[in-house]
Each structure stands twice: as C-alpha cells, then as structure tokens.
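Researcher: Next sequence.
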Amino acid sequence: MDNDVKIKQLVREKYSAIAEQSQTQNATSCCGATSSCCGDEVYNIMADDYTTLEGYHADADLGLGCGLPTEYAKIKEGDTVIDLGSGAGNDAFIARRLTGEKGKVIGVDFTPAMVNKARANAEKLSLINVEFRLGDIDDMPVTSNFADVIVSNCVLNLVPDKYKVISEIFRVLKPGGHFSISDIVLEGPLPAKWKEVAELYAGCVSGAIQKQVYLEIIEQAGFKNIVLQKDKVITIPDNILANYLSAEEINEYKKGVTKIISITVYAEKPVKDQKSCCTPGSGCC
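Model: Next structure:
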C-alpha cells in the first residue's frame, strides 16, 4: 500500500475514534487546553480556548485545534466560508456567527464519523446554511472559484502532500478571496525516532514540515500578501515525550534547536490568476 494512503488511513482511524469521545474525555486523556492533567497522547496538547467566541457550541468542540483561525479570518456578513478538516463543526459554527443568515459555511472532512457528528450538531442548532461534506481536502468536493474565505485548524499537517492541498485552496477560492489557517510547523529537525512513530503523525507532530518550506509552498501556489498572524511555540510535556524518547534523548531534545510551532497564516488569491490567465503577448494581465 502507498505510504500516503497508509498515513491517511491512520489519521482517519484515529479521528474516527476521537469523534466518539466528548471534549471532556479528550482533555482528560490528551492534555487539552483546559485540562489540569496530562495523559499519553499528542493530538490535543495544542488546543486554544474557544469558549469566549460568539457562535461557540460545546458539543462541537473536541479540543483538536492549534489556533483560532476564525478570529483572524476577516469573515464578513454574507461570505461563503469553507472549513477544511471541519471535525465536529467547531470552527464552522463560529464562522456561521460571522457570516450571518445571508452567508454560507461548508465544512469538509474525510472522516465519516466526524461528518455525522457535525451534521447532528448543525441540526441541534437549526442552522440551515451550514453544510458538511465528506471528502479529502486535497481533492475538495467543491467547485472552483467558490469561496470568499477558507479556514482550517491544525489539519494541513495531517495531509501528506502539502502542495496539493494548498493548490486546492487556491482553486476553490474566488479571485480576491483569502484564507486564514492555523497549523503546526517546525524549526529545526525532529528526533529521527519520532519520524518512525506513526502515532505522532495523527498527533500533528511528525507530519509537520519546516516553517519556511510551508510559507514557500503557499507562495509557489500563487498566493499573495502572505502574513504570519500568530506564532506560538508548543511545549510537549515530559510524560508525553517519555513515550517516544529515553531520558537522555529528552534532555538532548530540550537542549537542541528544534521548535514545534503553532502558526496562523493569512494569504490572498490575486484578483487575476497570474498563473493561468495569460498567454505570451496577450496583454490580458
């Protein structure tokens, strides 16, 4: 089986299991942002607190993010917004509070259990202009030039082909549209042992790429006005590190230059697509 397929299957299985848990269960076992204890998982230690944001719905918050992209996304009333890796609907419902009844929010997730959970939450809230679609975010079930805004929270690091998903974001955004994405990136090399632990991919760590490479991919895809809206170093507790590293290796890691970072990035799709709108000498751009 292709390695990318294996990784996607691992992530799907992991997040299917998470979908069946409550935020309290996730926080208790995974060091959530509001948890006072720490378990032996990785995927939940990076979450920010959503509870003060308008549109927050506790049943939709599984504590899986690493930022607050909707807070920075410049969403306006009437916008069409797409949330990539929408999970139980947390960011989608907050985006809906900003778009109002005139707007539309579409969540895309490739885990059936998450889509079902999000749809159930939307029905509880009687939100007729929030929709959840099953599909890969690197091959979105959305037509081109459709969305005003795209948001995503700690999901792109789970996709093996980063350039493909960034290119899909470019395709789906309207000319002049923009995205705000929170994600995990690296500065410096990860311990070699971590790259061999599949569980750490689902925990957002071993699937992360270098920060500078991440920003270069966004630029290469055609985006302009790239802004780093937030930059926060993530500290992994010792008891979680101990699952993957020896005491000596933990000390070496802490003394090293490697940083695991939560970033929120904003970028705009040009009003005219410089990559495809022109032929040589046409003067159309």
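Model: The radius of gyration is 19 Å. The chain has eleven helices and seven strands.
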